[in-house]
Amino acid sequence: MGREVYPLEQEARGKKFGEMIPRLEETRQKVREAGLWAPQVPTEYGGLGLGFMEHALVCEQLAKTPYGMYVFNAQAPDAGNMEILNEFGTEAQKERWLRPLCAGEIRSCFAMTEPEHAGSNPVWMSTTAVKDGGNYVINGHKWFTSAADGAAFAVAMVVTDPDAPPHGRASQIIVPTDTPGYRRVRNISCMGDEGEDWDSHSEITFEDCRVPQENLLGGEGKGFAIAQARLGPGRIHHCMRWIGISERSFDLMCQRAATRETAPGELLGSKQTIQNWIAESRAEIDAARLLVHHAGWRIDQVGAKEARVDVSLIKFFVAGVMSRVVDRALQTHGALGISDDTVLSFFYRDGRAARIYDGPDEVHKSVVARRILKGYGVEA
Ligand SMILES: Cc1cc2nc3c(=O)[nH]c(=O)nc-3n(C[C@H](O)[C@H](O)[C@H](O)COP(=O)(O)OP(=O)(O)OC[C@H]3O[C@@H](n4cnc5c(N)ncnc54)[C@H](O)[C@@H]3O)c2cc1C
């Protein structure tokens, strides 16, 4: 990581993602040659076949630099799509989509959130798929579809039975992005940057978009269950990434405190405020990691469904720890922290979304509190 991946940060300064692709491909090739490609992918698809907690430990290391997950082919949203295709895909779907995805030959995206509906309510959406002959005809509007720019296919969450109980209404369907009627409207400008290629979030529309019924993933009405299967253990990996980002920021903060002088011979690290930030950050990161490991252990013991509260706990707790640690590290660097000369300004911009995606923090807090209050005889 130190020799091959961290240096990409400085090379990427001021460049768009597309300009970096040749360098990233070179590094991806080195990862393959080192026998470290796709740590989370089963060996039959060319990965290392790590178990989900083993991969969680790897995520912490890879996430310490913005391109880490990508050059190992462990990046969202492809990693999640690999997981659900492996678990729920037919043999034909695996051959057509999973194999090239695992090989890093194509990319993919996951289209669930709609601008017209609160994404925090995952069972409320209006994109529909209606059967017609051997096809599904899809109509609808999605946004914040990460990495849709350049993706070969989208896994779209669509309503197939509006009259079913809420959790049985939606299905997941694979939509090749060259299907007529699929349109990427724009890359949404986020925090001043519309990004490109993998590093982007798109608005997309489906207008009478026809795909064969064989593109249904895992059965009709199973969309929500598949999303849960993807998100539960996936949140462990997100949280470990956030811990990696926190550790890197912490390290930069300590280096700065140990070298920056506010007057000749007077180190920044001698100030009590900075010392407080160092001590508080150390405690918070260590606590966050132990909590995530505990949630992973719970998933192993009782399954993702039963461990739902443990997973909600880590989602909001670790996102908060990362926000605070990155903010303290940035502040410790003064103007240098605001500049793009260190990775901190990237972590600061990019990390803010962690409190929103994968379920806003407030929703997860509500899940935790309601479960606790149930123990007191209250259905809140
Ligand atoms: C960087 C990024 C990448 C994303 N990538 C994808 C992707 O690849 N595919 C995809 O489908 N979606 C993606 N999303 C969308 C994401 O899943 C949604 O933004 C998220 O589910 C929240 O939905 P919303 O934006 O509609 O906010 P809303 O549901 O409108 O919520 C707005 C705010 O209201 C508050 N709130 C909501 N519900 C409650 C509640 N029950 N109690 C208290 N407060 C509440 C929260 O503060 C919340 O932030 C991405 C989002 C971001 C920011």
Q: Major β-sheet, in short?
A: 4 strands, mixed
Shape descriptor:
globular
Low-confidence stretches: none
CATH superfamily of the largest domain: Butyryl-CoA Dehydrogenase, subunit A, domain 3
CATH class of the largest domain: Mainly Alpha
In short:
By secondary structure, the chain is of the alpha+beta class. The chain contains 12 helices and 10 strands. Helix 3 (52-62) crosses helix 7 (223-259) and helix 9 crosses helix 12 (361-374).
Describe the structure.
The chain is α+β, with helices and mostly antiparallel strands and 380 residues long. It folds into three domains: 7-75, Orthogonal Bundle (Butyryl-Coa Dehydrogenase, subunit A, domain 1); 108-219, Butyryl-CoA Dehydrogenase, subunit A, domain 2 (Beta Barrel), CATH 2.40.110.10; 224-374, Butyryl-CoA Dehydrogenase, subunit A, domain 3, CATH 1.20.140.10. It is 47% helix and 16% strand. It contains twelve helices and ten strands. Helix 5 (78-88) packs antiparallel against helix 6 (91-103). The longest helix has 37 residues, at 223-259. Flavin-adenine dinucleotide (FAD) binds at residues 77, 110-113, 118-120, 144-146, 201, 353, 356-357, 360, 362-363, 366.
Output the keywords.
alpha+beta, Butyryl-CoA Dehydrogenase, subunit A, domain 3, four-stranded mixed β-sheet, binds flavin-adenine dinucleotide, globular, Butyryl-Coa Dehydrogenase, subunit A, domain 1, Butyryl-CoA Dehydrogenase, subunit A, domain 2, about 375 residues
